[in-house]
Amino acid sequence: MSSSLTSLVPSDVKTLSEFGNFREHSNPNIAVDLQSKNLHTSSEFFFLQPVYSLSMVTLVTIFGLLGNITTGLVYLSPAKTFWHIVQRGSTEEFDSLPYVVKLLNGYMWVYYGLVKPNSILVATINGFGAVLELIYVIIFLILAPPRMRVITAILFGILDVVFPVAVVLISQLSFNREMQINISGFLSLLFSVATYGSPLSIMIPNGSGFVLGTAQLVLYAMYWKPKQPKRTSDNVEDDWQHEHLIADSGPSLKNNESRADA
């Protein structure tokens, strides 16, 4: 069966996309032995029929839209916090690093969605998120204390201006489209991890301080009451000699006092 089906497919068809194009211009009900054609799949036979293709496209679209909705909610989650910041007119003790990293992450995903075919959903939702993160960073640049404002400006210039421009220029001028997709995808994943790990910059110092402070309290509880030093034999002998000298000098002191009275 597989040999007869395989003979229906031209020898230059090596990928699923090429087979899809061939199927559209020939018999759409052709079944092909993918293993004999070097088309990677988990089953021995794969039936590429219009119903299957339609269902897969539908599932991809549905899950893509659900992913966009959840990603949009993640980008919108700090909106309430920044509304209160604007009302108070100060960012107080909030740190700008997570939002600077999220902005860079949005840039990278937008670039990935633009260079990778059929990834318009990735580009649009992360473009929306990048706009929101840019607004958050601008609020920091306006309302943060002077020191935090300077730090935010430096981070924004390096991570959100210089680095993305360098990545786009280098990848566009030096690599082909496939390598551009790989580079942008790797950087997007890397900065996604950094986005969710950026709160550790606050948690780790405070966590280590908590552990060290707890250790100090435990040590204080164990040794808060000082122990009395033990009297050694040398100390006892010195005390005895001191008392003996005081006793011997008693009469002479009395005689000196009587002479002074006379």
Automatic annotation (TrEMBL):
Pfam families xrefs: MtN3_slv
Annotated Gene Ontology cellular component terms: endomembrane system; membrane
Positions of transmembrane segments: 51-76, 96-114, 121-144, 150-169, 204-223
Keywords for this protein: Membrane, Repeat, Sugar transport, Transmembrane, Transmembrane helix, Transport
InterPro entries with a match to the protein in the record: SWEET, SWEET_rpt
GO molecular function, one term: sugar transmembrane transporter activity
Membrane topology: Multi-pass membrane protein
Transcription in keyword set: no
Localization, UniProt: Endomembrane system
Record function comment: Mediates both low-affinity uptake and efflux of sugar across the membrane.
Entry's family note: Belongs to the SWEET sugar transporter family.
Protein name (record): Bidirectional sugar transporter SWEET
